[in-house]
Amino acid sequence: YHQPQLTARIIFTSNNSLLEVLHMLFKVVFLFTSVILYKFLRNYVACQKMKKFRSDYLRWIKTPDDSLFENRNAIIRLIKAAGVGDSVIPVSQAVNPLQIVSHTTSVIDNFPTTNASLAASMSIKFDEAVGVYRHRYHEAFSPLYWIETIVFLPKFLILYIGLDLEKPAFKLCNVLLTIIWLGVLFIFYLFGNDFYHLVSDFISQLP
Questions:
Q1: For residues 57 and 79, what is the distance between their CA atoms, to the nearest angstrom?
Q2: 161 in the Ramachandran plot: left (φ > 0), alpha (ψ -120 to 50) or beta?
Q3: Which of 75, 66, 78, 84 is closest to 111 using CA atoms?
Q4: Where is 104: in which H helix or E strand?
Q5: In which band, very low, low, confident or very high, does the pLDDT at 134 lie, cut at 50, 70 and 90?
């Protein structure tokens, strides 16, 4: 006599669980899609800015004015954010008709300048930055990039906050954190189902 009600209750519970799983998957997909779009748009916009600044700089070298100085700090920030380092090159300057002084100077610190050697080196840095940002926004759609990011997450975090992995202390820190992180991933692989139910319960309580 009570069997139809029991069957309906089981079907309702099953459908409700399915909806919760779908809702959780939607949130996960939405979050991951947002991260991909953010990486793509951030680097695409930076790439377009660098292209425009490069054109402005090439024009400025021929006809110097005050316009480029307004964007000097923004240009330097974009170049450094691309991981393009400064360089020091030798330059010669005529003090008088009979004396020439030679010294080394920073390319970025002297930007913008019409000095031929510094301008040529700076133009290369523009090209390098454009290439870096182009590569980064292409990475947004690369499965291998995201797999590598997850596996070597500590390394990417250390690089993101601007630490130098060539220094022994940070290199050791990277090795230790990577070992710990790989251990966490291995534990997750072994107890993935339990973790899935834990996350599912947590996400289902989110608004």
A1: 14
A2: alpha
A3: 75
A4: strand 99-106
A5: very high
Tokens at residue 152, please?
């070597």
Measured between alpha carbons, how far is 82 from 161 in angstroms, rounded to an integer?
Answer: 13
Which class for 130: exposed (0-12), middle (13-18), buried (19 or more C-beta within 10 A)? buried
Share of the chain above pLDDT 90, in %: 30
Query: Is the pLDDT confidence value at 10 over 80?
Result: no
Which secondary structure element, helix H or strand E, spans residue 95, and what is its range? strand 88-96
Q: Is 43 helix (H, G, I), strand (E, B) or coil?
A: helix
Mean pLDDT confidence for 61-73: 88
Asked whether the predicted pLDDT for residue 3 surpasses 50, the reply is: no
Instruction: Name the amino acid, one letter, at 52.
Output: K
Is-contact 79 87, C-beta < 8 A? no
d(CA 10, CA 55): 67
pTM, two decimal places: 0.71
